[in-house]
Amino acid sequence: SVKNILMIQDSSPCIRTIKIASALQSKGLNIHLSHREKTPDEVYGYGNSIFDSITLLPKSKFKEIKIIKEIIVSKNIDLIHFHNQPDRLGAKLIKANLSVPVIYDQHDFMSFKHHLSKRDKNYERTCNESADGAVYITNSYKNEVEKFYSLIDNSLSFANYFPSESTLNPEDFSPKLSKQDRKTHLVYIGRISEHRTDHRNIIKILKKLSEKGFMLHIYPSRNKKYRNYRKIKNLIIHEKLPYKKLLQEISQYDFGITVFNNDVAPKLPHIRFAFGNKTYDYICAGVPVLTQDCLDEVKNFTLSNNFGFILEQHENYQNISRKNYSQIVENILENRNSYSMENQIQRMIDFYNNTIKKKNDE
Questions:
Q1: What pLDDT digit, counting tens, does each position of 114-136 carry?
Q2: Of 260, 201, 266, which Cα lies nearest the Cα of 232?
Q3: More confident residue, 43 or 134
């Protein structure tokens, strides 16, 4: 059975890498990290302690494979889990004929976003077509990638689940603002933009919601001026907060909104078929979700679990009775744990073991 995993990222490690590593560690696996740029602690303020060892990859690209081979031997590594983006090092590892399998975790498919150079296209092709195993964020995301490449048949869909320690218990919820002013308060967390063609420019949607009488709260991931947002009536932009404090804070609102620019998002597969962190953050805080019709994955998740509503269907939530609202919150509290990283991680471990077995049988 798999015991020692080497996570590799050709950049600063992303939050997905840290969440998966933490859940694997909770199951008794030893997780090692090789990366470039910043450590988890430097990026997120935590995370280094999850890893048994952390190696900063050298500036010289000629030495990187040699160093990774040394880690495989010295740490008795069973499998490499490579997180994209970029794909260059992943392709190099796959072609290096290492003694252990290489799993490619595709959570940022660059061909969706812009035209790639011939070289980058080749890296992306190698990773999707020649790894020992591949991980995709959702099934529909994988189906879209399949329109570009002949994918390997050994793959797993594994979303950006949340760490179970993130869930806020009802006794820790902040009192609802709506109890004081009888208005419905919506919260949005994450990046926003003022560029007209950016999918994160949500000014138009927020204006409409403001006109309908909703109170709006934004916790942006960066502290900036956001002048065009501040002009919107009934909208408050709050300071960026540490994660734990943020969850506590958003529990005082009635709905969390997962939205993108309606003129742009329906045309972008990497938005329609992906599943970002904010929707999970809302349910961690016990707050029902409002999302858009065009966000296929988030919409299906929200409706199939009865965790919230679709924004376009105002009649369902605009004058929701207290009883119906309480039922949705109760539903979230009862069922959210099945989406925690710890409850899902056994699927990843089984996938690792199957991939190792396949490699050994070759």
A1: 677 999 999 999 999 999 999 99
A2: 201
A3: 134
Instruction: Give the residue from 15, 27, 29, 22 showing the smallest Cα distance to 105.
Output: 15
Distance CA 41, CA 63 (A): 25
CATH (domain of 188): 3.40.50.2000
Query: Which residue from 136, 147, 86, 151 is spatially nearest to 116, judged by alpha carbons?
Result: 86
Given a contact cutoff of 8 angstroms between Cβ atoms, the answer to whether 107 and 134 are in contact is no
Number of domains in the chain: 2
Q: For residue 87, give its domain range.
A: 4-161+341-361
For 284, residues 6+ apart whose C-beta sits below 8 A from its C-beta are 162, 166, 167, 168, 247, 336
Question: Using one digit for the tens of pLDDT, what is the confidence trace for 150-163?
Answer: 999 999 999 989 99
Q: What is the edge-to-edge ordering of all strands in the sheet holding 215-220?
A: 235-237, 215-220, 185-190, 255-258, 289-291, 308-310
Side chain identity, residue 225 = K
DSSP 8-state symbol, 293: T
Over residues 16-29, the mean pLDDT reads 96
313, two tokens: 């269907």
pLDDT score at 109: 67
- Do 229 and 139 lie in one domain? The reply is no
Summarize pLDDT for 242-291 with one digit per residue, the tens: 888 999 999 999 999 999 998 887 776 666 777 778 999 999 999 999 99
